[in-house]
Amino acid sequence: MRISRKHVVFIILFLIGLTGPLFQSIVYPVFLMKIWCYALFACAFNLLLGYAGLLSFGHAAFLGSAAYFAGNLMMDYGSTWMTPEVAVIIATLWAALLGLVFGWLAIRRHGIYFAMVTLALAQFIYFLALQMPQFTHGEDGLQGVPRGMFLGLFNLAPDSHMYYFVYGVFVIGFWLTYRTIHSPFGQVLRAIRENEPRAVSLGYHVNRYKLLVFVISAALSGMAGATKTLVFQLASLSDVHWHASGEVVLMTLLGGMGTVWGPVVGAAFVVSLQNYLGVVGSWVTVVTGVIFVLCVLVFRRGIVGEIIEVTRRVRKGRQGADAGATPARSSSSP
Amino acid sequence: MAVFQWLGISPFGLMAQLLLGLINGSFYAILSLGLAIIFGLLNVINFTHGTLYMMGAYIAWVLLTHFGVNYWWALLLCPLIVGIIGMLIERFLLRRLYQLDHIYGLLLTFGLALVIEGLFINWFGVSGDNYDVPSQLSGGARLSFMYLPYYRIWVIAISLLVCFATWYVIERTRLGSYLRAATENPRLVQAFGINVPLMLTLTFGYGVALAALAGVLAAPVQAITPVMGANTIIVVFAVVVIGGMGSIMGAIVSGIVLGIIEGLTKVFYPVGSAVVIFVIMAIVLLLRPGGLFGRER
Q1: Interface touch A282/B121, C-beta < 8 Å
Q2: Which helix (H) or strand (E) holds A155?
């Protein structure tokens, strides 16, 4: 395989990520881990919205229920045989299964109806979580979830150890989304997003593609949720609440939907915002909403989308070409 | 009565829940009607609908507790105030998005819903407030099989009246014919000299005024909290998916019927009452993906 400039950039970024625990005096490792978890969540969501054009308003169901799953597994069996990676894998499989059911129901409708169906199905999960206190511990949530021993060998209780586990999970998840986007499968998804009837007429089983991408997205969201439980040692109702579904939409939109790095940037931005706005308490919702509105009105390309657009214009200008028509939606990836 | 004993439920309980279901159904009907009108003309799913419903209830409460304005004036003023707010939202925010994919309308109204909900939580807290039933409608009739509070009868009557009046205006009058024509082909209607942008603004205003009306009606029967709107609107979304938004009557009927089903579930299988509408939605999606009265666009 030829090493291109893109590979070098990826490797450098990967190495920078590895240095996270060195900056403990500046940023909390837990804060960085939270960013990785939400970045993975947003990448999974972006796969669906940005590349297949499916707006799900119910991704909290996957994040939250996988969080409960992993939490229960670690609390019940963590002291005996359950290891964190197995808990994450089982919770991911659970999310994939749930995604299969949700996707199977939701892809029967299009556009806005799809969003409403996923929202309603996620609310169904929320009510189930409320009504199963033996599984979810109701308003308290699962508290004090043990982080366990990775592979039965490495204790994840210290944050610096946990950091590498979370980072590993993120890199695997990110790599999976990247491979999905840049595969023939990903190309078909884009074709469906741009013109579904044409994709059908070309002989693609559109619903099968939609279902598969929904399942992948749900599974990765579950992986993020399960990992998040280990980080905070907590699984709570707020993870299955529709606010969480809205948050991931915002992260993707703000970072730039349909771009590879957009969700990561958006997640980092939103998590930092929540962290530093913590002092103003309940105003966080208002600020989040205002950013949401601004994004939709004037900043639809998102941060990364805007950067791509500017770079392209600069390049065009350098070539002396006329910077004329710009496409409505930037689908190119860096 | 033997049947009731056999089922292990009291007829009083059954009738009370049936009435409660009918009331919730009336709210669902008004809200889904508003959503359907707005969606029909503007192609926007209005996420703020629930929040504006909550706002209607709170404005009524503020008017009463701080300004001494009674229920009857609130019934008139709240829809007016919220309608104006809605028209401002349409004129200055939503209008910019008509050329884009429909999902942007949903995302914009979602953001607005967060803003409004957040503001109300800051102002009023999450504990909730109570609104007294107006004196003219307090009390009730003691029938042989149940106790019938007058206020609940009033809510059901006024809701049905508003729903059917709206249906009549849209389906049977000249104004309604413009509206239906603009739903089919706005450019052609505009070419005939009808001010379509104004019509869009007024339609949105009317739709959210309906939501506010439901809010005022709900104020004396429910605890007023900032999150009441979001919780209701998600159920109404499911109602809309079940009914389909193709027909006005479909929105009304499915709202009322699903409210009653929810009420009955509370009697026969209480733990299922919170999720029964979502389960029905899943079944409808399997059997009739387009919705019961649907004509998907």
Answers
A1: yes
A2: strand A154-155
One-letter amino acid of A28: Y
Whether the CB-CB separation of A179 and A260 falls below 8 Å is answered with: no
pLDDT recorded at residue A320: 62
- Specify the pTM: 0.89
Neighbours of A86 (CB within 10 A): 17
CB atoms closer than 10 angstroms to residue B164:
13
pLDDT in tens, B145-187: 777 888 888 999 999 999 999 999 988 999 888 888 888 888 8
pLDDT score of A82: 84
- Closest chain A residue to B120, measured at CA: A286
A45 Cβ neighbours under 8 A, 6+ residues apart: A56, A59, A217, A221, A248, A249, A251, A252, A263
| CA atoms of B283 and B245, how far apart (whole Å) | 18
B106/A115 CB distance under 8 A: yes
Flag whether residue B227 sits within 8 Å of chain A, measured between CB atoms.
Answer: no
Q: How far is CA B101 from CA A112, A301, B294, in A?
A: 10, 14, 21
Q: Is B178 on the interface with A (CB under 8 A)?
A: no
pLDDT in tens, A65-79: 999 999 999 988 877
CA angle, A117 as apex, A115 and A120 as ends, to 5°? 110
Low-confidence ranges of chain B (pLDDT < 50): 297
- A328 burial type by CB count under 10 A (0-12 exposed, 13-18 middle, 19+ buried): exposed
Helices in A107-158 by DSSP H: which ranges?
111-131, 133-136
CB-based contact B97 A296, cutoff 8 Å: yes
CB crowding A244-279: b at 16 or more within 10 Å, else e? bbbbbbbbbbbbbbbbbbbbbbbbbbbbebeeeeee
Angstrom distance (rounded) from CA B240 to CA B34: 11
| Average pLDDT value over all residues in chain A | 87
Q: Do the chains contact at B111 and A113, CB–CB below 8 Å?
A: no
The answer, yes or no, to whether ipTM is higher than 0.95 is no
Choose among A57, A129, A113: nearest CA to B275: A129
A106 chain-B contacts, CB cut-off 8 A: 285
